[in-house]
Amino acid sequence: MKDEESRLNAILSSMAEGLVAIDNDRKVIMMNQAAGILLRTAPQEATGRDVRDLLVFFREDKELPYEEVPIERAMTERNIISVSLLDNLSVRAKNGQLFPVAMMIAPLLTSGEPSGPAVGGAGAIILFRDVTKEREIDQAKTELVSLASHQLRTPLSAINWYAEMLIGQEVGTLTDKQKEYLQALSDANHRMIELVNSLLNVSRIDLGTFAIEPTPIDFASIGKSVLSELEPQVLAKKLKVTVEHDPNLPAVSADPKLVRIIFQNLLSNAVKYTPSGGEIKLAIALTPPNLLITIADTGYGIPASQQAKIFTKLFRADNIRDKEAEGTGLGLYIVKSIIEVSGGKIEFDSLEGKGTTFRVTMPLSGMTKKVGAKGLT
Amino acid sequence: MADTTTPQKILLAEDDKFLSTAMGEKLTREGFTVLRASNGLEAVALAKAEHPDLVLLDIIMPQKTGFEVLSELRLDPTTRDIPVIVLSNLGQEVDIKKARDLGAIDYLVKSDVEMRVVVAKIKEALAKLK
Hints:
The structure holds two protein chains of two kinds. Chain A is an alpha+beta fold. Chain A has three domains: 2-130, PAS domain (Beta-Lactamase, 2-Layer Sandwich); 137-207; 215-363, Heat Shock Protein 90 (2-Layer Sandwich). Helices cover 41% and strands 22% of the residues of chain A. Chain A is built from twelve helices and 15 strands. In chain A, strands 1, 2, 3, 4, 5, 6, 7 and 8 form an eight-stranded antiparallel beta sheet that branches. Chain A has a five-stranded mixed beta sheet with strand order 10-12-13-15-14, covered by helices on one side. The N and C termini of chain A lie far apart (65 Å). The mean pLDDT of chain A is 88. Chain B has one domain (9-120): Response regulator (Rossmann fold, 3-Layer(aba) Sandwich). By secondary structure, chain B is of the alpha/beta class. Chain B has helices at residues 17-29, 40-50, 66-75, 93-101, 115-129; strands at 9-13, 33-37, 54-57, 84-88, 106-109. In chain B, α3 (66-75) links the parallel β3 and β4. Chain A binds chain B through residues 150, 153-158, 160-162, 164-165, 168, 170, 193, 196-197, 200, 211, 213, 372-375, 377, and chain B through 16, 18-19, 22-23, 25-26, 29, 89-94, 109-112, 114-116.
């Protein structure tokens, strides 16, 4: 017995990752040496303390509200919760310094107990590490993308401009076939520019450097203007488009560029991923304290097994990869980031082969001004 | 009223050869006289010597950036009132604000704008001057 205990202790103290075990009352049962080093707290000092005082979470220098603390979520949902680099969470060490953290919290289930919300349980195990290095690499990558995007725009502009002169027959007449091929070249180039712009937006979101410039705007007119830009595709696919909105929609203080990006991505996705003859509905309703924007289509839908991933960078669902070559897998990531930064929410229902409905709620109180070096384009 | 029979002079400050050629030819076909500068120093010198009706200005250029060119043109009373349209691939808010603060009348991002739009903006700006 003694041997086993010392062997267990040796294992725990040799671990490179911090480990904290807590009971059901959030009291620390034990903490290993690595956790002690990360938190600048001696392991024996931690025993018996409330884990909420030991592991204090921050997102961008702001303490995380209680209900968002991953340990609480794991305890109440009684499920394993993992926190990655992308969650942007930090933990405060005893000396007051914050370090970015990756973490895994596993509730201890009493034997035979199924996972999921329930009474009982026997506490949780928290494994964590410092991801400062990873965060630096991520930052460097983002800066590289930003720089490369600017450099890529120059040759893309040249292709655009020369194609424009040729297609406009400014330097001689073209055969129909020549015109058609040049148009294909120009369209492909526009897709490339869009991709570069999306990459730039993603890097700005990831760097946290994008600006929000709110001004009173009418959501319905932005939605309609985006729809009118999509008219050629709508007509080509013979889609039925309906727009409904509350006649008394108030002007909401929001950044028109960001709102346009939201509508552009959601509506162009609806058009792109709905087969000919299908339907698209845009509805904007007043549901105080929010504005509710619904965009529904009768399109290909998102396979149930992949629905959890649709807001992930570069994700594209399997069922549309071979139907639609276009698409960067960045749009919904950008949309979700903008909505969340604005205090809104995005949800969806989707049934493969039937269609998808996105619901965006935006607070009527509007977006908060954020000074940033770069606006999204 | 400007004399409509003499072609208006546009100073095109652009260091990328391909872009400068494309835009230069386009403007010539539209009936403008085009002066081309391939760096910031040349742009300032040409503006002072030739007094163009409008400057189409890139930002990232050798010798002097577009921002420096703008500041210098603003300091000289003989070039102070020449309208400047920035045509750059920098599209950040800070860049746009800086150019506007230095007196640029418009700011266009090259990759997002067709040449005919640039021409329309130039004509619009020149028409306002009359």
